[in-house]
């Protein structure tokens, strides 16, 4: 079965049809830049462009970088605040001529894809996927099932919102060495481990491609720590899985 997945992010809107049996894209993904200001109307126009690029007219799964309940955005930490309260499911569906649309938090979608097709396959204990990007996203699993909208990037650490210090963006903005940033990530993981005692941390986000530069520097964490395997396509695959009712 195929479903279209689209990943709405702060810098790009990316999508492709997804083969749900293989957990992979059936065609090369198409990306448009996220418009600025990233208002709901402008972004949804970008989603339409990506979907129409493939001539797709079937069901669509989408991700969004904030809390999502009932297809509606409840927070918008790193995107335009006008998203809060927006019924994304309806907005996207209306723009695409009424097709069924499902919306998941971006990290939850990436986590669902990793659990089925990537680093979390077959893991039944507590698994935490953390995406280190513009912010920090989290997806919590136990028995392979997602607890949606965990928002662990906003834990307070030494008086700061954790994602402001340990995200990939913080490393870039503050020009931190890998060693310096890895110490921050380590403190963050230790804090999360103290709260949840996961058996496995899956580290995602674009920076997971450079996992060899920082994961070996992280010490003193009991849980196994592995990079995500699906990398940049996890959100698209997970979005499609959500639309298929597999999240
Ligand atoms: C948002 C989360 C999101 C994460 C990654 C955080 O700031 O609150 O909902 O998953 O960024 O995009």
What does this structure look like?
It is a single chain. This protein starts with a strand and ends with a helix. The longest helix has 19 residues, at 178-196. It contains eight helices and 15 strands. The chain has helices at residues 40-53, 88-95, 106-117, 162-166, 168-173, 178-196, 211-214, 234-243, and strands at residues 2-8, 12-19, 24-25, 30-33, 60-64, 68-69, 72-73, 101-105, 127-132, 136-142, 145-147, 156-157, 160-161, 200-204, 224-227. By secondary structure, it is an alpha/beta fold. The protein folds into two domains: 2-108 and 233-243, ATPase, nucleotide binding domain (Nucleotidyltransferase, domain 5), CATH 3.30.420.40; 121-229, 2-Layer Sandwich (Nucleotidyltransferase, domain 5), CATH 3.30.420. Bound molecules: beta-D-glucopyranose. Beta-D-glucopyranose (BGC) is lined by residues 65-67, 75, 77-78, 105-107, 131, 133, 135, 137, 151, 153, 163.
Map the helices and strands:
Layout: E1 2-8, E2 12-19, E3 24-25, E4 30-33, H1 40-53, E5 60-64, E6 68-69, E7 72-73, H2 88-95, E8 101-105, H3 106-117, E9 127-132, E10 136-142, E11 145-147, E12 156-157, E13 160-161, H4 162-166, H5 168-173, H6 178-196, E14 200-204, H7 211-214, E15 224-227, H8 234-243
Parallel strand pairs: 1-5, 5-8, 9-14, 14-15
Antiparallel strand pairs: 1-2, 2-3, 2-4, 6-7, 9-10, 10-11, 12-13
Bound molecules: beta-D-glucopyranose.
């Amino acid at each position: 079965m195929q479903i279209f997945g689209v990943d709405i992010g702060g810098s790009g809107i990316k999508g492709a049809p997804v083969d749900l049996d293989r957990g992979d894209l059936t065609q090369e993904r198409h990306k448009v830049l996220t418009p600025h200001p990233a208002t709901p109307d402008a972004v949804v126009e970008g989603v339409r462009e990506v979907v129409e690029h493939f001539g797709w007219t079937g069901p669509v799964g989408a991700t969004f970088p904030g809390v999502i309940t009932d297809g509606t955005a409840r927070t918008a930490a790193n995107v335009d605040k006008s998203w809060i309260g927006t019924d994304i499911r309806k907005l996207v569906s209306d723009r695409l001529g009424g097709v069924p649309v499902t919306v998941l938090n971006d990290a939850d979608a990436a986590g669902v894809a990793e659990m089925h097709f990537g680093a979390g396959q077959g893991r039944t204990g507590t698994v935490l996927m953390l995406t280190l990007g513009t912010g920090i996203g989290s997806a919590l699993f136990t028995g392979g099932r997602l607890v949606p909208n965990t928002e662990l990037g906003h834990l307070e650490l030494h008086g700061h919102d954790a994602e402001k210090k340990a995200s990939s963006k913080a490393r870039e903005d503050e020009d931190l060495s890998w060693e310096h940033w890895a110490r921050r990530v380590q403190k963050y993981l230790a804090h999360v481990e103290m709260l949840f005692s996961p058996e496995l941390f899956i580290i995602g986000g674009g920076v997971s491609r450079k996992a060899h530069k920082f994961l070996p520097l992280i010490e003193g964490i009991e849980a196994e720590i592995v990079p995500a395997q699906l990398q940049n396509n996890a959100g698209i695959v997970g979005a499609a899985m959500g639309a298929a009712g597999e999240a």
